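Lecture 7 notes: from sequence to structure.

We start with a single chain of 74 residues. Read the sequence below before looking at the structure.
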Amino acid sequence: MMASGTISGPHEGSYGSMLEIAWKGTKPVAMNDGSQRAFIHDGDTVVMRGHAERNGVRIGFGECSAEVLPVIAQ
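Now the structure, written as tokens:
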């Protein structure tokens, strides 16, 4: 899975990537299980969803998810 670019809003609650949300790793994010994360790790599942809405018309795409795999050293 690959995404190019991040569409973020101007406020902290509207940031669009883990790097922005965690302020380059300096502000960890609280997870539902009580742990904190600053970066995406191997084994994580990344889920992307998107839509746009205007004048009552909504367009978008379904959910796309993929597991982050470790780098294979050559």
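The helical segments are 18-21. Keep this in mind for problem set 3.
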